[in-house]
Known about the structure:
By secondary structure, the chain is α/β, with parallel strands linked by helices. The protein has 2 domains: 5-216 and 332-412, Zn peptidases (Aminopeptidase, 3-Layer(aba) Sandwich), CATH 3.40.630.10; 218-329, Alpha-Beta Plaits, CATH 3.30.70. 33% of the residues lie in helices and 23% in strands. It has 12 helices and 19 strands. Strands 1, 2, 3, 5, 6, 7, 8, 16, 17 and 18 form a 10-stranded mixed beta sheet that branches. Strands 9, 11, 12, 14 and 15 form a 5-stranded antiparallel beta sheet that branches. Strand 1 (58-62) and strand 2 form a beta hairpin. 49% of the residues are buried. The model is unreliable at 416-420 (pLDDT under 50). Residues 90, 97, 132, 386 line the site of one manganese (II) ion (MN). One manganese (II) ion is lined by residues 90, 97, 132, 386.
Amino acid sequence: xxxxxxxxxxxxxxxxxxxxxxxxxxxxxxxxxxxxxxxxxxxxxxxxxxxxxxxxxxxxxxxxxxxxxxxxxxxxxxxxxxxxxxxxxxxxxxxxxxxxxxxxxxxxxxxxxxxxxxxxxxxxxxxxxxxxxxxxxxxxxxxxxxxxxxxxxxxxxxxxxxxxxxxxxxxxxxxxxxxxxxxxxxxxxxxxxxxxxxxxxxxxxxxxxxxxxxxxxxxxxxxxxxxxxxxxxxxxxxxxxxxxxxxxxxxxxxxxxxxxxxxxxxxxxxxxxxxxxxxxxxxxxxxxxxxxxxxxxxxxxxxxxxxxxxxxxxxxxxxxxxxxxxxxxxxxxxxxxxxxxxxxxxxxxxxxxxxxxxxxxxxxxxxxxxxxxxxxxxxxxxxxxxxxxxxxxxxxxxxxxxxxxxxxxxxxxxxxxxxx
Length: 420
Ligand code: GLV
Ligand code: MN
Ligand code: MN
């Protein structure tokens, strides 16, 4: 046995698995469209379970569709250390967002195996259900239910654009994976570490392969419905129209102006916009649009988010407006202890690091409320993410996996790693 499990991380294997996984939901432009609980997601889960089985990991799903692969420890009753991320993607997503954290975790567990290290605590690799919130909103569904921040009952009725519900897809998951046991929803966790691509430009600019994430900025999401009246595009006079599209645009422009920030810290995005009936000669009767609002300072996020409804009401006249807040998450800082452990693990591997905040959201946000949690970032090309062009190097991915492996050794092994 070799006590340096990280030395067994195989950069080539890790890269090839990313390319394999990218086939599940591959897009023409070289990206990935792997929606939560879709057939493509099921195929990716099956591939992960098979890879795990080949190194002796045992798999289970919980009732929220989270997938766990367990490496046994010498102390079977000890709360597990968890690592992982998500396997779902944006519709025009890349090959690395989310899946990197899952495959880096698998690589770490395989490195444990090849080094002949049996940890004291079990280590569980987890793929959280629906992090992206693209098919079913809001995102981070699986981790929020696991953490008790949302209930299973609240997510089951959520439907996608076709009217298929999370509950229907969870039942389909249970049938498709009838060979797997169902594990309890929400359990004690000793610590959680998630590896992820940075999705920003800082590490690449600094020429570093690993970032120790200091925290995650806050985010509020909303669904807005503007209701007007359908009428004939040729015959209805301006004074009589209640054009939901024009009213929605006026609301969005007003918010963009109000939230304009010379410091460029406010992130205001309308990423989804659905017009009904969406016909060229009908004045639009209703519009639904999404709002994704983020800021590192929670007090600013609260103030701006609280203005959304009033701005929409004022600027959508004469249409009616309904504003529904889908998720509310304040800024958070990961515990110093976990960050120190990640930094020590990187030092041991002679990998230089930078402390870096996360502007993107991650499942680690919800695990943070359950157990000491932290994150490891690796660079992605030009900081591009949520884009089919998303790219990363095999070397950087492997460096992150080495730091993750060495971190898991510190978190899951007693004073010295146990020998087989
Ligand atoms: C997570 O995918 C986010 O949108 O921040
Ligand atoms: Mn992600
Ligand atoms: Mn994402």
